[in-house]
Amino acid sequence: MRGFKAFTLSELIIALAVLGILCAIVLPTLMSNNPNKNKMMIKKAYNVFTDVINELINDNNNYPFLYGLCPDTGDGGYLGFDCTETDSKLPYLFATQLTLPGEKISSEETLNKASGLDKCNGAASSCYYFQTDDKIIWAFEEDSIAKGSYTDTIQVGIDVNGDKGPNCYQGSTTENCKNRDSDFDQFRIQLYADGKVKINEDDEWAMEAIRPSSSLTK
Length: 218
Description:
With 218 residues, this protein is of the alpha+beta class. It is 28% helix and 15% strand. The protein has one domain (35-210). Strand 5 (186-192) and strand 6 form a beta hairpin. The longest helix has 24 residues, at 9-32.
């Protein structure tokens, strides 16, 4: 009966050494290609925001035509979402288009309010905010863009991972954020009265994340 030849100890050591070298070469490349969750969520949040704004603009009950009639009052000469010149209508309309966990927002009066840049995701010193079931926190500047021109804007601050850190937007001067140059979890969007959407110029990391050619890895 023919016997089988086994590996010698030296051959086994050489094989393990070769395997270790290959791992040292390949693993850094694999690790660098891991998806960056914050970048992915920024891209998702931006797409959701633009989709919802487009839905609202195409509904005459929410957004009057240029210098058209306000659907709430019948008055003319309005452009924008908050034609009653209340600053809570837009965030309320936006919230009704999304899935929220727990108790639903049933009216403008049930919106949460906050003060301070840290609470408003860098958008403003006061805001209306709510959280969707994907943990994104949306904070709308407490201001109206009713009866305005094309250049009238409000700012919306978005935190893509809820209460989880680092809670930083690009350009923040808070102690835990001021030296950070990547992997932000907050960014700001400028919303114009005519529905144009633009990421805040300071949020370069977010602008990079939404580009079609952008890599979503670290």
